[in-house]
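[job 0412] stage=complex_fold ligand=uridine-5'-diphosphate status=START
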Amino acid sequence: MRCLVTGGAGFIGSHLTERLLGENREVVVLDDFSTGSEQNLAAVAGDPRLRIVRGSVCDPAAVESCMEGVEQIYHLAAAVGVFTIMQKTLDSLRTNLLGTEVVLDAALRHDARILVTSTSEVYGKNTSIGLKEDDDRVVGSPLKNRWSYAEAKALDETFTYLYGSELGVRTVLVRLFNTVGPRQRGRYGMVVPRFVDQALTGQPLTVFGTGRQTRCFCHVLDVVPALVALLDDESAHGTVYNLGSPEQVSIEELAELVIAATASSSSIVKVPYQEAYGAGYEDMQRRVPNCARAAQQVGFRAVHSLRETIDAVIDDRRAQLRTAVAGR
Ligand code: UDP
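[job 0412] stage=complex_fold status=DONE, emitting structure tokens
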């Protein structure tokens, strides 16, 4: 079977690509290498079943050039990271809206089944413990830059759903909660690799806001098999699934855990949101998934503990920092 992975050189996409190749599938990666990197695919670069295409999901010709013989599409390409969304808001909005429509059109034309990755951001400021797929969205003003990501992804979901219900495309939607692991970079905002890099280089860990806000961090290797299982399973199509860990941690606790796990002498500093992200920023105070639907459908369970997940990031960042020092 041949699969297209958009965003396949990114953090989650590269782990998915490795998984699909490991199942002896052929993989076409389409990536514009804006936040992805060739290094992420280094372990599989010479594999004859892998083809890497440099191009944007917003370019219909680039997408079309990947489609020959493709039976499954995993659409992961997107502008990601809170820093990216806050600094390049218009570009991000366009990529996240237009790219999904172009890829859905390709699925329709080629009768390929498609999984579209959405985000827990669509729940916005809903702080229920155990957010369910049918829960209401609580989002702020459309003029606040942060919400543009949630708005784009929510519309992507509606598009995907309608391509399924009105046009007969076989679709699966997943809402990824905070997903972390090796290869994730801190420079686009993601807190775990940022804290780990800060701890390993002896800099203060920058806790934004009060630090009392909570998140649940799921290991990427728990998420990736579920993506494949859901798209393979015809009875899973036509709906949306939360994927994440139930283990809640406050951001201040996370900073303390990272300092302990790295045996770092770093301190913790509190940084006001405005300083971190610019004016008009709103954060979510809590974001905890209920994953019963994915558990029932494909047996999804986050098996890695938070400590194991943090340790995996530490090992990866240590190796990266060593390589960077050796290359100077
Ligand atoms: N965060 C932080 N320090 C950082 C980066 C992020 O305190 O250096 C906070 C951020 O404000 C948020 C949480 O960590 O409350 C998770 O941020 P991330 O960008 O990783 O994910 P998201 O906000 O999308 O859940």
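The pocket of uridine-5'-diphosphate is lined by residues 82, 178, 189-191, 194, 206-209, 213, 215, 251, 283 (CB under 6 Å).
[job 0412] exit 0
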